[in-house]
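BUG-240 | component: ligand-complex export | severity: low

The export step for adenine jobs runs without errors, but we want the raw record kept on the ticket for reference. Input record follows.
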Amino acid sequence: MRLDYVSIFPDFFSPLELSLPGKAAAKGLVDVHVHDLRGYTHDRHRTVDDTPYGGGAGMVMKPEPWGEAFDDLLAPTTTVVFTTPSGEPFDQRLAAELATREHLVFACGRYEGIDQRVVDHARERAEVREISLGDYVLNGGEVAALAITEAVVRLLPGFMGNAESLAEESHADGGLLEYPVYTKPPEWRGHEVPAVLRSGDHARVAAWRHEQAVRRTAERRPDLLTPSVLDDGTPIVRAT
Ligand code: ADE
């Protein structure tokens, strides 16, 4: 998968050399390119923003530098991701969908946003997704692009050693939240590992984990408890 990032803060993307995406790059699964939007300006001040038509607070990102960046980067096989608080909410389903694409271009806006014609124009040339990380406002789309990247890259075939651990974690298939996990020692600072997990009884362990997952989901994310999630009595088993 090829990944391009367009931003006025290219340094934001140095973490891509570390951690998960770094591992993916080392394995040859992703090919990462970062672009400074100001590199597509032609005036002395490398201007990327201007005042909004219709008035109002703040500045809007000008279309011309984006157009030139897209001239360089977009192909018919490209999916352009605009990170914006007014986009569709990012979730595991969307991460899995993006993981099937061969080329993602992340367009990271700042200020009050990007001139709408940039999005409309990109739609004429490629698939476009406007994506929000959540119902809060960040200073710009860079952190959102990094979070989306990490969620997508770990789903690429060949990235994870054990594909089962992907299928069984929280939010896979929009299911239940993950049950609590424990490791040695059996007692720590007065807190014990639940006895059932040390019983060696696999059926009881599976039933306990399912019950814990349901309880956690009911407490923290009741919106996820659809009848289909609860009807499915499949035990949730974490891969080792
Ligand atoms: N840019 C600013 N806030 C954002 C958010 N919540 N999600 C994605 N991009 C953003």
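Assignee comment: Attached the raw record above. The chain has eight helices and nine strands.
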